[in-house]
Specification:
Mean pLDDT: 65
CATH superfamily: RRM (RNA recognition motif) domain
Structural class: alpha+beta
CATH class: Alpha Beta
Number of domains: 1
Shape: globular
Low-confidence stretches: 11-16, 168-197, 236-257, 259-305
Radius of gyration: 18 Å
Number of strands: 9
CATH topology: Alpha-Beta Plaits
Strand order of the largest sheet: 1-3-4-2-7
Largest sheet: 5 strands, antiparallel
């Protein structure tokens, strides 16, 4: 049965064409909604066009608001999406540096574009996606080359100082290092957890950014830590909190994931088990002003947070 093309445009603001990536080799069975969610980890998507590419494939054109998000998306070349490894291409040179400086920040929310690329890929891993070590190592090299991690740590410390006096009064939240400003934890773009560098948990996050010698294995470790944070917030096991039983089934999960619920890199996922991790994980994705939740293939996104 032919696949109907679709176009998803979150807003009508024209985007610069250089902020575009072209994605091919997407399995026809991968839901359009999941494709959008997958690339939203990189940063704000202003437009996405998805259409059939032969009998069993899809292709997509994804336009980002900022070129930093587009360059992060290029790291996803040959990453597993659904049941196939995708091809991601664009005209940008990853070595060109145009990351935003703190002076260019708009408000106090921490956006995906400001995060080190190694952290963004750790988020992919924590959500159940499989990212190759070559991409992880390239993210580490780019973060180090452009001093992204240090600048981001400076931003966290600045925000922590700004809100420390207000948040000190919130004793219950403070015991977990979480403020009512950002209950989303891992999934919220303005997560207070990423601002609370004065708390034990916040210091662990800061340590990840401060260490400049990170390798691919360190990003896997960070992904497991993020899964543990999600477990602590949910008050249950990381396996249940991350929704992995919806994806793998209990027997499959024990073989393919570690104790924190992060996929075991040594055990490949079957096409069925990898088909739609994002749709099954109850993920908040998207943008500071347009955060959406996907809890299943037939679910409708709720109003913005």
């Amino acid at each position: 049965m032919p696949i109907a093309s679709s176009s998803i445009t979150p807003n009508s603001t024209p985007a610069i064409m250089t902020n575009v990536v072209y994605v091919t080799d997407i399995s026809a069975s991968t839901d359009d909604k999941e494709i959008k969610e997958f690339f939203s980890f990189c940063g704000k998507v202003t437009a996405i066009s998805i259409e059939a590419d032969g009998a069993d494939k899809k292709k997509a054109t994804v336009t980002f608001e900022k070129d930093t998000a587009m360059k992060t998306a290029l790291l996803l070349h040959h990453t597993q999406l659904g049941s196939s490894k995708i091809t991601v291409t664009g005209s940008a040179n990853l070595d060109e540096h145009n990351d935003p400086t703190p002076a260019q920040r708009d408000g106090d929310e921490i956006t995906q574009e400001e995060k080190p690329r190694s952290r963004i890929l750790a988020e992919y891993l924590a959500h159940g996606y499989v990212v190759g070590d070559a991409a992880l190592e390239q993210a580490v090299v780019l973060d180090k080359k452009h001093n992204v991690s240090q600048r981001f740590l400076t931003t966290l410390q600045s925000l922590d100082s700004k809100y420390k006096a207000t948040d000190r009064a919130r004793a219950t939240d403070e015991s977990y290092g979480i403020s009512t400003r950002g209950k989303g934890l891992l999934f919220g773009l303005n997560s207070y957890f990423e601002k609370a560098v004065g708390t034990p948990a916040g210091k662990k996050i800061a340590k990840f950014y401060e260490e400049g010698s990170k390798q691919a294995q360190d990003i896997h470790t960070e992904a497991r830590r993020l899964a543990d944070l999600k477990k602590d917030q949910a008050g249950g096991s990381a396996y249940r909190a991350s929704g992995l039983e919806k994806v793998f089934g209990k027997a499959r999960c024990s073989a393919t994931t570690d104790s924190a619920g992060v996929p075991n890199a040594n055990v490949p996922l079957s096409p069925q088990s990898a088909a739609s991790p994002a749709a099954a994980l109850d993920i908040k994705v998207g943008y500071p002003s347009d955060t959406k939740t996907a809890s299943g293939p037939d679910s409708k996104p709720p109003p913005s947070m």
